Amino acid sequence: MSAKFAVLGHGVVGSGVVELFYKNKNSIENRAGTEMDIKYILDLRDFPDSPYKDKFTKNFDDILNDDEVTAVAECMGGVEPAFTFIKALLEKGKSVSTSNKELVAEKGDILLKTAKDNNCNFFFEASVGGAIPIIRPLHRCLAANNIYKTAGILNGTTNFILTKMYNDNMPFDEALKLAQELGYAEKDPTADVEGHDACRKICIISSLVFGKHVYPKSVYTKGISEIQLCDVSSADILGYAIKLVAEVKRNNNGKILPVVMPMLVPHENIMSGVSDVFNAVLVYGDGIDQTMFYGRGAGKLPTASAVLGDVIEAVKHNVTVFSQSWDSAEDDSFIDSVENFSARWYFRTSSDHTPSTGISDTYDVHEDGTEYAFVTYEVLTFAQAKNISEKINALAFFPVLD
Ligand code: HSE
Question: Quick check: CB of 9 below 6 Å from ligand 1?
Fold first, then answer.
């Protein structure tokens, strides 16, 4: 008996799944406890030189209607047609593993229910943190904990860009181009640069940890496009690295607050040293205190590793894994307002606007020519920080990671 699976999409991730599978086929089969093979690769393009050219199809129905195919790896990206395809596959009892964070963040609740109703699985380890095992640890290894917060660097492209800005003084555009050449960036890099990709990932983590679907539109999201080289160097002198952080925590009022923002990470925090395309997620729970997960957050084989791990799980499990699930949310009243987000704050302003807010003697001030950068000692809400930023005409303001 051999388990047959299909791969939807032959782009960076899909071709990585095929490559890694055939590279490690023997050990994969040992771990799966069964022979395995790829029966179809779906892509609208032609690949006449591929060693697997006989497996290519342009017709999704070939896969849907083939009873021999019991598992599918979806690596197409985007909500449609991926959603329609995956729903149809799950309705036929075929388990699906995906790297598609946009889809999981928008439609995860529906697809998880469809999988449950049809006694199969919808897996998405690759959708958050690339190669890093984070989804399965959250609902399995850490299941004994009350997890109250996670904070992570969840976008490889922006971390790569910020690292190049920090280490090499490389301009933003040049670093972005390099990230695209290396296959890290999304088709439209705006999703990376403006934080939408990290937002989708924190939606997935929030939904899984707190049990209700969190939609991207409910999450305050700010990207890195406004960060200047002078912010990177000022933050460094003040003792911080600037990182795009995606965080969710449960506030005292019982609501959860997911956000994506550039944050200043203290040099003594292990996350400040997470560089290049690497991602990291800190998980806080009442049993574990804190645990960090670290690894390559993007790229062909790292992402393929996570997709294939899920395919192997799907082959091994012929029943739904119930712990990897969450409910649909009728509204977002369980999500707190970003105005309540509390932190110490970094401000950059011109010398014409030296701190005059009544708390100036509590600032660390770094003089940078005609501009000043400083970090407040006090913890202020986002609403208060915004107010101060208006008063002092701030050129930039970012929170400090707690
Ligand atoms: N564009 C994404 C990133 C790919 O840079 O992290 C992995 O999700």
Answer: no
Q: Phi first, then psi: what are they for 294, rounded to 5°?
A: -145, 140
Question: From the CA of 192, how far away is ligand 1's center (Å)?
Answer: 7
Least confident of 268-272, 306-310, 355-359: 355-359
Domain ranges of the chain: 3-130+301-316, 136-293+331-336, 339-399
* pTM given for the model: 0.96
102, 178, 184, 204, best to mutate for ligand 1 pocket (most atoms within 8 Å of CB) = 184
Is the CB of 130 within 6 Å of ligand 1?
yes
**Rounded mean pLDDT of the chain?**
94
Q: From CA 61, how far away is CA 76, in angstroms rounded?
A: 16
CATH class of the domain comprising 3-130+301-316: alpha beta
**Residue indicated by tokens 């029943």:** 319
Task: Give how far the C-alpha of residue 388 lies from the chain's centroid of Cα atoms, to the nearest Å.
Answer: 31
Report CA-CA distances (Å) from 238 to 235, 260, 374, 378, 394.
5, 22, 8, 16, 17
Q: Is 247 in the pocket of ligand 1 (CB under 6 A)?
A: no
3-130+301-316 against 136-293+331-336: fold identical: no
Reported confidence tier of residue 318, pLDDT bands at 50, 70, 90: confident
| Ligand 1 pocket check for 156: Cβ under 6 Å | yes
Q: Which residues are tagged catalytic?
A: 201
Name the CATH architecture for the domain at 136-293+331-336: 2-Layer Sandwich (3.30)
Whether the CA torsion 224, 230, 231, 232 is positive or negative: it is: positive
Tell me what the mean pLDDT of segment 225-236 comes to: 91
Walk across the sheet containing 345-350 and list its strands. Answer: 363-368, 371-376, 345-350, 396-399
Residue from 104, 157, 274 to probe ligand 1 pocket by mutation (most atoms less than 8 Å from CB): 157
The confidence band for 309, taking pLDDT boundaries of 50, 70 and 90, is: very high
Which of 212, 200, 208, 202 shows the shortest CA–CA distance to 103? 200
Q: Given pLDDT bands bounded at 50, 70 and 90, which one contains residue 162?
A: very high
Residue 362: predicted pLDDT: 46
> Is residue 297 pLDDT above 90, yes or no?
yes
